[in-house]
Structures are given as C-alpha cells and as structure tokens.
Specification:
Blueprint (H helix, E strand, L loop, with lengths): L1 H35 L3 E7 L3 E3 L3 E10 L11 E7 L5 E8 L4 E7 L7 E8 L12 E8 L29 E6 L10 E8 L8 E7 L4 E7 L4 E6 L7 E7 L2 E6 L8 E7 L3 E8 L8 E7 L2 E8 L5 E7 L6 E8 L5 E9 L7 E6 L9 E9 L8 E9 L12 H8 L19 H13 L7 H6 L13 E9 L10 E6 L5 E6 L5 E7 L4 E9 L14 E5 L22 H32 L7 H11 L8 E4 L11 H5 L5 E4 L2 E4 L6 E4 L2 E3 L1 H4 L7 E7 L14 E6 L16 E7 L27 E8 L7 E7 L6 E10 L4 E9 L2
Parallel strand pairs: 2-8, 35-38
Antiparallel strand pairs: 1-3, 3-6, 4-5, 4-7, 7-8, 9-10, 10-13, 11-12, 11-14, 14-15, 16-17, 17-20, 18-19, 18-21, 21-22, 23-24, 24-41, 25-40, 25-42, 26-29, 26-31, 27-28, 27-30, 30-39, 32-37, 33-34, 35-36, 37-38, 42-43
C-alpha cells in the first residue's frame, strides 16, 4: 500500500515536472518566434517643434528592427503623413531607404489653419499591429493671419505644490503594487500616481490608513505626480489613502490583499539589479519559472525545482543593452502571476557626440565649419547614422527634457501610456533622484508590446500586410473576345528609365501577373504588353486578343488614432512669442523682397520680345528629351485637321511617306516609333487621329542618334494627355497599355545661402529660425569625422545644435549644445 502511494506521488511529481518543462519550452519557443518575426520601429527627427504657414517641415525618418534597434531586414518603404486636427491626411510621403534613415519634407500651404497637427510614420508591415505602435508626434502650426502673434499658454508642466489647497477638484490617484498584487503578510512596495482632471501629473500628500482608521504611513508625490509607500498588509484588512482638499477628507481605496500568492520585487543599483522572488502558498515556489526579457530577447531564466518560500538573484547589467526589461514569474500551472519592469541604463553604452567649430567667436553672415565625431565610453570611435538641426533658441525651444530618438526608442515605444518630459531621465548619469523616479515609471507603466496570454495561446502573428521592398506593378489578363474570362497569357513590362528595362513572365491560370519590386523616384513611364501565345507570333492577329487590367496601386492609409501621441509640450511662452514675431517679420521681408525683385526685373529686361510661335516651340521643346526636332506638326495650328487619320497627318511632314499601313522617312524603311517617350510600333498608332495628338516630331540624322535602332529616322508622337496614362483615350491596338507609375518621393535640398556669392542676399535680410538642417551626417571612413559648413544669419542670438541618431550597434543618442553669434 505504501509503495503504491509513493509510486502515485512520484507519478504526480513526474507529470508536474514534465508539464512545467514543456511549458518552459513553450515560453522560450514563443519568444524566439516573436524575435524572428520582430516588430519594426520608426522615429522621426524634425528640424524644430513648431512652425508657421510658409515654413518647410524638414525631417529624417529612422526605420529600425524593433528589438535590436539595428537595420531592419524587412521593410524598405516608409509612409510619413501630416494630419490636421480633423483627422484629415493633408499630405503624405512615400519614402524608400536601403539603410536606417531617409530624409523628407513637407511644404506648409498658405490655406492651412492654425492648430495641432499630427506627424505619423509607419511601414506597411506595421499595419499588422495596432496604430498605437506607429510613430506619432504633435506639431503646432500657426497661420499668422489668424493670430495676433502671441501665445497664451497654460502650463502643462508638473505642478510643484506642496499642499493640496490649490486643487479645485478631486484628483485621480492610482496604486500600483510591485509585481501586480498585494499579498497578505508580505512586504510590498506600492507606487502612487496622481493626475488632475486635465490628466496632468500633480503633487499631493496624504496618509495611508487601515479599515480601523489607524494611520499606517505618510505619502507625498512630487515630480511627475509619483510617490511610493511600503506596506505589509494584514489578511482581512482593507486600506485607503486619506487626502484632505479644502479641508475635506477624500478616501481612495488601495487594492485588496490576496490571502496567498507570489511576490516579485527588484532593486536597481544601476550596474546590478537584485531580484527577490517570494511566495506564501503551500508549495512555495516549487515548479515556478522566472523569465527576464528585453524587447523579446531573453536575458535571464530560472526554473525553481525545490519547495522554497523565496530566493534572491543578483544580475549584472554590464552586458545588457539599455532599455525596458520585463521580468515575469509563472506559477506551477504555467500562469503569469507576477510581473515587474526595470530600466537598464548601462554606462558602457554611453555615446559621446563631439562638436567643434572652426572659430571661437562668430559674427553675422559668416561661414562656419563644424566637425562632428562619435566616441564610446572608452573614447573609441563609433559609426552611426545621425541628423542635425541648428535653430535660433531665442525663438525655438531647446529643451533637454523633450522627446528625442533615445527617449522614444528606450521608453515611450515600449511602455503603455506616454511619458511626459522623458529627456529628464537621461539628463544626468548616476543621479539618485532620476533613478528613483524612473523606477516609479517602471512600476506605473506596463509593457505594451504583447500580453503573455496572447503570445502563448493566441493566434499566430498577423501578417496580412507584408513588408515592402519596392513598387510592384500587378494586374490580370482577360480574353478580348467571347466570354472575356481571365486567361493565362504572356506578359511583358518595359520601364522607360534612363536605361530601359524589360522583363517577360507568364500570368498564372487566373490571369494574375506581378512585376517588381522596383525602386524609382517621382514617376516613370511604363509599357505593359500581353499576348495570347507569345511575343514571337505577332504575325497572327488573334495573338493580341487579350485585355490587360491593372490593380490599383493606391496605398490606403490606416485610420487615424490619437489615443497615444507624443505631445510637443510647449512650455516657454516667451520663446514661442519670439518665434511668432520673428516669423511675422520674415513673412513681411519676403513680401517686400518679391515686390522689389519684380520692380528690378521690369527695369533690366531689354531682350527682344519673342513671337507666339517661338514661345510655343520653346514650350514644346521643354517637353522633349531631344530639344528641337528636324520637322514638327503642331496640332494647335491645325484645329480643323483633327479628324484626319494619323496616316494623313504623317504625310504632311517633309520627307515622310505614309501609305496604307506603311510609313518611311526618305524611303529608307520603317522608322522608329516613339509615343510619349516610350517605344511603340506602327500597329500602335494606326487607330489614332488628330484628336489624340498634341504634336508630332520627325528626327533625322544626328537628331535621331539619341534613340536606338534609329537608322531609318524617328517619328515621335506626343499625345494630348502629355504622357501615357491608363485612363487616357488614345486608341492603341489590343494587348498593350501605357501609364506613368508613381515612384518614391525625393526630398528637397535644404536651402543654405552663400552670403559670399549670392547677389540677392545683399538686399534680403536673413533671420531664419532654422539656421541649418543636415538630414544625414556622413562620417568619414578614414577619420570617422564629419565636416559640415553653413552660414550664420543676420540675427545676433544664441543657437542650439541638436544631433540625433543611432550607432551601428543599435545605441540611440541625442546631443544638445549651443553657440553664440555676436
């Protein structure tokens, strides 16, 4: 009998151990799957935090692997949008990058209203998750015609009141027990967070009391509305915070203590964290599993096989990257019962940005050369991607507490909610108060990237939206005759780039075809062709009895969601008023300059007035790649001939003979046919009339040499649409369509005046608020330094240098410094 009991007990233990062992493997496998299918992050660095109408928004977007903060191997396309206060997307940029960063810009239009605008950035792959994971930042834009150039600001900074008498309404107080729960008989740290009705962090003080009205301890919150108490709850008792506001007591109940459970507490010493795991359950910590991860990468694991009530772990942080780390305790049933976040701030990861100017004293309109380099904690050179803005800090806030690439990647992108003034936590190294408050941030903000229940037992990761590597041209082919069903056909694409590219493939059994990915800027003329059999059987007219239908390439933007937004906290009303007044002065100076320039033009013009015919030819030549032709027909001069066929029109050109379905120049054979810059053939134009044509050029001899296969000359037909478009009405033979494909946006170049050479600058005052914008600072391979030159303006002021970036090893950094122009 005893043997049976022992055997049964052994079987139970074995099964329990097997279940826990399998669960451990499940957790590790799911985390590995998460890191293999890593999320992406984007951060956008702008040249300044606010703008006026007529300004340009200059930005650099950083696209990263969301776990390692290095270059992502997934997406290559970034979408950046500007959204108004009514959630309307008023401008959008589609950018391509093969590296970590790419630059862009927005022109602020004159008809935009004053208000808060949202700058949003994401990849197609990021749409698989909630839009909370997109980069979102508020930017204020003023229309100077709608404002008197003043800024009345309600201070959103943390109140520094030491009493509660200044409060006019009941604040919200939340309690966050360390590890998640209060457990009877176990000491627990409890973080306190206080906000007013406007969701602002505030300072308050009060007393913690039990159900018998006995005072347990005193508490006080200050910076960021945060505070902390330590409590050992007694089973069966409840507790509340007593706060007096205007001599009236308000009670806030604490969470009820569980009779038994598990505790998880962490003390962060900077270079080391001490983890304490405890339990007052009957089996203690037996078969529990403690797992630590940072952004999904495992940094610690411990399986407790013995029946013990507590254990300690000392974990050195010198090999752990900076950022939010998550420690979770799973009980013997595989349930996550306690969780604690801790911030790793490793001094070994400190990046030093060194900047030096070639002159110690600067004056107005002076050329300045700046040298930049990166060094690690051991003063060794670092490589990285960085961008730089230089702004007038009498008008532009230059706050070290504001959001930047380091605070976003290490804090706000991984925590629930938004951390206000996050730069504060990175201002001073080894600052006791900063570390204390940052630890309270960890206690009051949860890990936002995934929930354990979803990761372990939920559906697989949504991949409805694939990472984009470039632009695809896709569609399907249908039979031209009969029931016009989809058919498999030979398809061919021709990209009319500087060096034309052509590729053939067979559409599938459902007629679907897809070419790409391609990378090109702005727009590109494209020819798509299809044949029933192949492209060698064009002597059979039925071979072209196929229709081509393009898929829409419009990228629909996700719905706008503003629940979690990085606010641009506008705190310095004096600087903002300076900015508005300076912007107003710039607007007046620009208007005066344009007016004076117009007057000057009227004085100096002495050229012969061009005839209307010359102006028309100049306009048409600007639309060609070859300039002037040998001969030309301009249909604007032949309005009464528009009903004539293309054959009749070609016969009107000197040296061209067109009869039935043949065309030749000087009887030398069929010439090369070009339609709106793309190659065609005679069959493609036989259906055209003068209604379809804008002008026709003939190129002979040397004029034709820029085209291949031009021994018999070239006939260039420009349609009335000006370019191929899938919606145009130009008649072409079946089996071919033409259109302009929209490419990637190419950022404009930031205007940098050369005060030594530019004549117009002599008469134009220069009082820019953004003195210089460098979207990509390139470090030399030899010296590991970058040299950047710019000119100071006419404004004697203090100027702030803000450099943001990330090293090749995934360490984000932000540098702030200043210089004076006297």
């Amino acid at each position: 009998m005893v043997k049976k009991v022992i055997l049964s007990f052994s079987i139970v233990l074995f099964l329990s151990f097997t279940i826990i062992s399998n669960f451990k493997e499940l957790v590790l496998r799911k985390l590995l799957n998460y890191t293999d299918n890593y999320p992406e992050k984007i951060y956008v660095h702008t040249d300044k935090p606010y703008y006026t109408i007529g300004d340009d928004i200059w930005f650099t977007a950083y696209l990263l692997n969301g776990i390692t903060h290095r270059n992502t191997e997934k997406s290559r396309i970034i979408y950046v949008e500007l959204i108004d206060s009514n959630n309307n997307i008023i401008d959008k940029r589609q950018l391509y990058t093969s590296e970590i960063s790419v630059s862009g810009d927005f022109k602020i239009e004159k008809n935009w209203r004053s208000g808060n605008y949202l700058l949003r950035a994401y990849t197609n792959y990021m749409i698989n998750q909630d839009s909370d994971y997109f980069f979102q930042s508020e930017i204020f834009i003023w229309n100077l015609k709608e404002t008197d150039a003043t800024w009345n600001h309600t201070d959103d900074k943390n109140n520094d009141t030491s009493s509660n008498t200044s409060l006019t309404s009941k604040p919200e107080i939340k309690f966050y027990p360390e590890g998640g729960n209060l457990i009877a008989g176990m000491f627990c740290k409890v973080a306190i967070q206080v906000k007013d009705k406007n969701n602002r962090n505030i300072a308050i003080q009060g007393t913690i009391k039990d159900v018998d009205n006995k005072e347990i301890c005193f508490f006080k919150t200050a910076d960021f509305g945060l505070g902390q108490i330590n409590i050992n709850p007694v089973q069966g008792k409840t507790y509340y915070a007593s706060v007096f506001i205007n001599n009236e007591e308000i009670k806030y109940p604490l969470p009820k203590a569980l009779p038994s459970g598990h505790g998880l507490s962490i003390i962060n010493h900077g270079n080391q964290i001490i983890i304490k795991v405890s339990s007052n359950s009957p089996i203690g910590l037996k078969n529990t599993f403690l797992l630590g991860h940072q952004r999904g990468q495992v940094i610690f694991e411990k399986f407790a096989s013995e029946n013990q009530s507590e254990y300690l772990v000392k974990l050195n942080t010198d090999i752990i990257p900076d950022g939010v780390s998550n420690f979770t305790l799973f009980d013997n049933n595989g349930k996550p019962v306690s969780e604690r976040l801790v911030f790793i701030d490793n001094p070994n990861n400190e990046v030093t940005v060194n900047t030096s100017l070639n002159k110690s004293s600067l004056t107005t309109r002076e050329k300045v050369t700046m040298t930049i380099d990166l060094k690690d904690n051991n003063d060794l050179p670092l490589k990285g991607n960085l961008s730089m803005a230089i702004a007038d800090i009498d008008a532009i806030e230059h706050s070290s507490t504001a959001e930047n690439i380091k605070t976003y990647l290490l804090l706000n992108s991984d925590l629930r909610g938004t951390i206000e003034n996050p730069g504060y936590f990175f201002e001073k190294n080894d600052d006791v108060k900063r570390r204390y408050l940052l630890d309270l941030i960890m206690l009051t903000h949860g890990w936002r990237r995934f929930k354990w229940t979803d990761l372990l037992y939920g559906n697989t990761i949504n991949t409805n939206y694939a990472p984009e590597k470039g632009i695809f041209i896709s569609g399907h082919t249908n039979a031209l005759k009969g029931d016009k069903q989809r058919i498999s056909a030979a398809t061919r694409i021709t990209l009319m780039d500087k060096f034309p590219y052509q590729k053939e493939e067979q559409s599938d059994q459902n007629g679907n075809f897809k070419f790409g990915p391609y990378v090109f800027a702005d727009s590109l003329p494209i020819i798509l062709e299809a044949r029933v059999k192949d492209f060698k059987s064009d002597d059979d007219e039925k071979n072209r009895f196929v229709s081509i239908f393009l898929n829409e390439s419009v990228n629909k933007s996700p719905d706008v969601k503003k629940d979690i937004v990085l606010k641009s906290f506008l705190e310095d009303s004096i600087k903002i008023n300076n900015f508005l007044n300076q912007s107003k002065k710039i607007s007046i100076l620009d208007s005066l300059f344009i007016e004076n320039a117009t007057r000057l033009d009227q004085i100096v013009i002495k050229a012969r007035k061009k005839t209307e015919e010359e102006l028309r030819n100049q306009e048409l030549n600007s639309r060609t790649t070859y300039g002037s032709p040998s001969n030309r027909i301009d249909m604007s001069d032949l309005e009464n001939q528009r009903s004539r066929s293309i054959i009749d029109l070609l016969n009107m050109l000197p040296g061209v003979t067109a009869f039935n379905n043949t065309v030749s120049i000087r009887n030398q054979g069929t010439p090369n046919i070009i339609i709106d810059g793309m190659p065609g053939n005679l069959d493609d134009i036989l259906f055209m009339t003068g209604e379809d044509v804008d002008f026709i050029d003939v190129l002979k001899g040397a004029n034709a040499n820029m085209f291949s296969n031009a021994a018999n000359g070239v006939i260039v037909i420009h349609t009335r649409t000006g370019s191929f478009d899938k919606n145009m009405n130009v008649k072409r033979k079946p089996g071919i369509i033409n259109f302009n494909a929209k490419g990637f946006y190419t950022a404009r170049e930031f205007y940098t005046p050369d005060h030594d050479k530019a004549f117009e600058d002599i008469t134009r005052q220069d009082i820019r608020t953004t003195l210089h914008w460098e979207p990509r600072v390139i470090l030399s391979e030899e010296s590991n330094k970058a040299s950047i030159s710019f000119y100071t303006s006419d404004k004697k002021s203090n100027y702030g240098i803000k450099i943001e970036g990330i090293t090749n090893t995934g360490i984000p950094f932000c540098h702030l410094s200043t210089f004076e122009v006297k």
